[in-house]
Amino acid sequence: MLRSLVFLLLAASAAGSQAAEYAIDPGHTYASFEIDHLGFSTQRGQFNRSSGSIEFDPEQRNGRIDIRIDAASLDTGLPLRDDVLRGEEWFNTKAYPDILFRSEKLLFTDDKLSAVDGTLVLRGEIRPLRLEINRFKCGLNLANRKRGCGADAQASLKRSDFGLNNGLPFIGDEVRLRIQVEAYLP
User: Fold this and answer.
1) What is the dotted CATH code of the domain comprising 19-184?
2) 3-state secondary structure of 79
3) How many of the other CB atoms lie within 10 Å of CB of 66?
4) Residue 19, pLDDT above cutoff 50
5) Which end of the chain lies in a sparser environment, N or C, as judged by fewer CB atoms within 10 Å?
6) Where are the domains of the chain?
7) What's the Cα-to-Cα distance from 155 to each of 32, 130, 134, rounded to whole Å?
8) 6 phi and psi, to 5 degrees?
9) Which secondary structure element, helix H or strand E, spans residue 3, and what is its range?
10) 17: CB partners within 8 A, 6+ apart
11) Residue 8: which H helix or E strand, with range?
12) What is the pTM of this model?
């Protein structure tokens, strides 16, 4: 009887510590950006299409994040500017249709996910990027009745590191990136 109880406890703890894989919900996931424009204003935009997956194991405090952003879905609210930014001199979305983020390590403060170290691939350039996590929650979404995880993340990067040199120094080099993501079990 004792062996059976020990076996059941071990099996339950092993099952409870397995990572769950969540599919990114494109209707609730957006990457947005802010950049200085000539010192007069902060220009903002977002990418409207994204996909990917999140694997997360809260007990082991690890996981994996893969996000694919459709570069051609860039939207600044001005179609003419968007066409220029999609062009060869800027994002060159025909040659580089995807912006990719892949995690390498999840960082925790106490039991709370606080940052994700990974790599960003933009215009064929691969650079390290740390996403600071402002909010993170896993649980049951009462609206869609699915288990999921969501987060608000932010980072800063230099666009010149990715070959986006147009307009420097008048248009800022520092880009503030924000990603809001929701992902759910299939």
Assistant:
1) 2.40.128.110
2) helix
3) 15
4) yes
5) N
6) 19-184
7) 11, 6, 11
8) -60, -45
9) helix 2-16
10) 57, 59, 60
11) helix 2-16
12) 0.85
77: left (phi over 0), alpha (psi -120 to 50) or beta: left
Contact 100, 111 (CB under 8 A): no
Token readout for 19 is 């990572």
Q: Contact, 181 vs 150, CB < 8 A?
A: yes
The two three-digit tokens of residue 32, written as one number: 């947005």
Query: Alpha-carbon distance 186 to 176, whole Å?
Result: 32
Tokens 């990715």 found at = 162
Question: Higher pLDDT residue, 106 or 186?
Answer: 106
Q: Are 40 and 172 in contact (CB under 8 A)?
A: no
**Is 26 strand, coil or helix?**
helix
